[in-house]
């Protein structure tokens, strides 16, 4: 069976060649590409003919310039997931939030700085289900003259986990929307674009050659559209050193748990008996009750291989014992076991909000031609979010255009029995205000672990748990070394408390990173107002900003 052999040395040479200067320039050509997977020949949309797409590899403080040429038949945008975009909101990328999409046969140049973060982020399409194949790593190294806050690894290895459909993903989304139903489950999971050996009609396997008795830094990214994932390496433990490009205290585990959008930097010591070891990926199902979720994965596991140098490429790899797909305890232990580095948590709080996440139904829209009576819908605080269609929210904020949105997103949970409503509602935040949000994910029919992603900011995770959060119960808060993140998995029937400083003017999407839930309405937008100085005001749009 064919295998794809990647050496860590090759990865490091690639990394050193792309970003020595203060400005890193890239060209992304987005176009159709035919790929053979699972005995099918499928046309996908990809960047530069690669899956995953090209790695952006830069140093903290660099300027990044990416010319995106849309040679695909679809409107699209690119989001730089986790990049703070301080005073560069026009480069953030979510379609109709910060820009109109890049239309076919058009282009747009994204310009931003990677100041204030180190570690593993990623980039992806932020329009329709194109994110299923339009994605890649974004690695930010300590600037020259500084070092990692942990022993320097001998090798580094990006590991991008994804989902694969054997049909056009745009059609998968369209069919679901037209019927008012959830999309069909993916056909496979992938490791760096490949399914591995354990699926029927298996394809190539991503294989990394490592040296014995060395330390490997795995940069693991969950790029899956709609699935939480478990990740293990047979015979090896991980030492987690960062999540979402935010350093953590060292945390040892044999299982990584990643919600869609999450990244984990983890050290692996290659001290096992030289051999061949599977890197295994399986879904973590969180929908409750389970009877409402299609869990027919057929027992398939996506795999890559960690191959010790000198071991035959045909050696049978060892397989790790994977958690049960519904093992919420392993997931909870992972998330609750993480600690950040000691930090000054912002205080006092200026804005307090409680945001309830909910799945439900709304009457079928006239455009949903295959929908019967009611369609699946989602809401935050009873508001099912709808994107504008004629002008992006950021353009409306900058120009003061009326009628594009309303600034009346509610700060609290509506009374029981309140009907879900549709709207383009934002929450205005004064510049430099400290914001605390309680995310409540009630046990309902159905309920699901929602990975909530905040654009433009990192936030501190002060506390999380099961049940209903008790207002004012700050005794459970970690105000010493909370984890910082940009995407938080809010447990089924549980809650999380986050805090951030709104020091970046613009329109910042706050939404579920299960892509199926975004068009259903599970999102809202923070409208951060201008400050009083030139370096705290929204800059004008670039000249090449796409038009609707």
Automatic annotation (TrEMBL):
Which cofactors are required for activity? Cu cation
Q: EC number(s) for this protein?
A: 1.10.3.2
Superkingdom of the source species: Eukaryota
| GO terms (BP aspect) | lignin catabolic process
Q: What's the record's note on cofactor binding? A: Binds 4 Cu cations per monomer.
Give the reaction(s) catalysed. 4 hydroquinone + O2 = 4 benzosemiquinone + 2 H2O
Q: Where does the UniProt annotation locate this protein?
A: Secreted, Extracellular space, Apoplast
What gene name is listed for this protein?
LOC123444886
According to its record, what are the GO cellular component terms?
apoplast
**Sequence ranges assigned to domain Plastocyanin-like in this UniProt record:** 30-144, 157-309, 408-530
Known InterPro entries for this protein? Cu-oxidase-like_N, Cu-oxidase_2nd, Cu-oxidase_C, Cu-oxidase_fam, Cu_oxidase_CS, Cu_oxidase_Cu_BS, Cupredoxin, CuRO_1_LCC
Q: Which CDD domains match?
A: CuRO_1_LCC_plant (cd13849), CuRO_2_LCC_plant (cd13875)
For this UniProt record, the keywords arranged alphabetically read as follows:
Apoplast, Copper, Lignin degradation, Metal-binding, Oxidoreductase, Repeat, Secreted, Signal
Name by which UniProt lists this protein: Laccase
What's this chain's function? Lignin degradation and detoxification of lignin-derived products.
Q: Which family does it belong to?
A: Belongs to the multicopper oxidase family.
Q: What species was this sequence derived from?
A: Hordeum vulgare subsp. vulgare (Domesticated barley)
Q: Where is the signal peptide?
A: 1-21
Q: What is its main location?
A: secreted
Give one GO term, molecular function aspect: hydroquinone:oxygen oxidoreductase activity
């Amino acid at each position: 069976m064919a295998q794809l052999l990647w050496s860590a040395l090759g990865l490091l040479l690639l990394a050193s060649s792309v970003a020595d200067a203060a400005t890193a320039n890239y060209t992304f050509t987005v176009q159709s590409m035919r790929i053979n997977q699972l005995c099918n020949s499928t046309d996908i949309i990809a960047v530069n003919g690669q899956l995953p797409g090209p790695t952006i590899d830069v140093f903290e403080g660099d300027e990044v310039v990416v010319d995106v040429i849309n040679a695909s038949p679809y409107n699209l945008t690119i989001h730089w997931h986790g990049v703070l975009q301080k005073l560069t909101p026009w480069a953030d990328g979510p379609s109709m939030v910060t820009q109109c999409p890049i239309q076919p046969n058009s282009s747009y140049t994204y310009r931003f700085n990677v100041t204030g973060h180190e570690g593993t982020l990623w980039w992806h399409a932020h329009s329709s289900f194109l994110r299923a194949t339009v994605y890649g790593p974004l690695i930010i190294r300590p600037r020259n003259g500084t070092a990692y806050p942990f022993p320097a690894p001998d090798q580094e290895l990006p590991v991008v986990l994804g989902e694969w459909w054997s049909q056009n993903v745009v059609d998968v989304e369209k069919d679901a929307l037209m019927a008012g139903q959830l999309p069909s489950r993916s056909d496979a999971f992938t490791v760096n674009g490949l399914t591995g050996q354990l699926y029927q009609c298996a394809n190539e396997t991503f294989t990394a050659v490592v040296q014995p008795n060395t330390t490997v830094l795995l940069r693991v990214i969950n790029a899956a559209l709609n699935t939480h994932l478990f990740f293990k390496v047979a015979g090896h433990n991980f030492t987690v050193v960062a999540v979402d490009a935010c350093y953590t205290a060292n945390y040892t585990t044999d299982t990584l748990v990643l919600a869609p959008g999450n990244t984990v930097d983890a050290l692996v010591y290659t001290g096992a008996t030289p051999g061949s070891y599977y890197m295994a990926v399986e879904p973590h199902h969180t929908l409750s009750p389970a009877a409402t979720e299609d869990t027919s994965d057929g027992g398939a596991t996506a795999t890559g291989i960690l191959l010790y140098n000198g071991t035959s490429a045909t050696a049978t790899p060892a397989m790790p014992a994977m958690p049960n797909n519904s093992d919420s305890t392993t997931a909870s232990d992972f998330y609750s076991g993480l600690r950040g580095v000691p930090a000054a948590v912002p205080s006092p709080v200026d804005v307090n909000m409680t945001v309830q996440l909910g799945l439900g139904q709304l009457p079928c829209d006239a455009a949903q031609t295959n929908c019967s009576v009611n369609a699946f819908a989602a809401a935050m605080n009873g508001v099912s979010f709808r994107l504008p269609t004629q002008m992006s929210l950021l353009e409306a904020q900058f120009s003061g255009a009326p009628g594009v949105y309303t600034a009346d997103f509610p700060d609290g949970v509506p009374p029981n029995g309140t009907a879900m409503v549709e709207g383009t509602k934002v929450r205005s935040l004064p510049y430099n205000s400290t914001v605390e949000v309680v995310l409540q994910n009630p046990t309902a029919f159905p309920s699901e672990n929602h990975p909530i992603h905040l654009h433009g900011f990192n936030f501190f995770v002060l506390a999380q748990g099961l049940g209903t959060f008790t207002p004012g119960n700050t005794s459970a808060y970690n105000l010493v070394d909370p984890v910082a993140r940009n995407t938080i998995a809010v447990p089924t029937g549980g809650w999380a408390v986050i805090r951030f400083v709104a020091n970046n003017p613009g329109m910042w999407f706050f939404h579920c990173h299960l892509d199926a839930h975004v068009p259903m309405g599970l999102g809202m937008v923070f409208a951060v107002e201008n400050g009083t100085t030139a370096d705290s005001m929204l800059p004008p749009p670039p000249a090449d900003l796409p038009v609707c």
